[in-house]
Design a protein that fits this description.
This protein is an alpha+beta fold. It folds into two domains: about 150 residues, Sandwich (Jelly Rolls); about 35 residues, no CATH class. The chain has four helices and ten strands, in the order H-E-E-E-E-E-E-E-E-E-E-H-H-H. The strands form two sheets. The chain has a five-stranded antiparallel β-sheet, with no helix packed on it. Helix 3 crosses helix 4. It binds 2-acetamido-2-deoxy-beta-D-glucopyranose. 2-acetamido-2-deoxy-beta-D-glucopyranose binds next to loops. InterPro entries: Cupin_1 (IPR006045), Germin (IPR001929), Germin_Mn-BS (IPR019780), RmlC-like_jellyroll (IPR014710), RmlC_Cupin_sf (IPR011051).
Amino acid sequence: MMSRFLIFGLLLTTCSIAFASDPSPLQDFCVADPNSPVFVNGVVCKDAKLVKADDFLFRGLHLMGNTHNDVGSNVTSVTVAQLPGLNTLGISMVRIDFAPWGINPPHTHPRATEVLTVIEGRLLVGFVTSNPENRLITQVLEKGDVFVFPQGLIHFQKNIGNGYALAIAGLSSQNPGVITIANAVFGSNPGIDVDVLAKAFQVDIKVVQQIQSKF
Ligand SMILES: *[C@@H]1O[C@H](CO)[C@@H](O)[C@H](O)[C@H]1NC(C)=O
């Protein structure tokens, strides 16, 4: 009986390790063919004989994103959608621009750990551990500092300077995904029942409706 539980436990552990990141590639590369009508986990490979150097190239990460928006930040993504050569390779990157005092609001990447470095400016960053502790791990980063946001955890960044700030981050998935907490919870389509949100956030229904109206 005990050993059966042990084997089951081992199987579970093995499975969770296998699913903790993108699957390993089974060939040198599998350049994404976004036009294929076939649905697979990832994107279908382009014929290797037709692959060109350009399939492994993205140009323009030196360009600043436009931060004139409500949060004062802009994320430029280089995932498999922008760089087909990333398909099956389990990696991607982003450039994050911050206006003075701008924020990258609390969000999570369902499929990736993120490692971030500050190129310019000073950032307050943090992530919150899962239930029940919900402990905030926070730090002020200076130029050249590197900080890691573990997979799936809610995290944020804030420019705590009067100038623009710039960060570059690597993510452990070709398609990390992003769930911005405020948008997902208050701006879903259709909206989540106000009573659910009022009870969840322990506020009046009017407060929920007011927040929902902003998204
Ligand atoms: C981010 O910057 C790009 C390039 O300037 C712009 O097209 C895009 O609308 C910006 N996104 C947001 C959310 O402001």
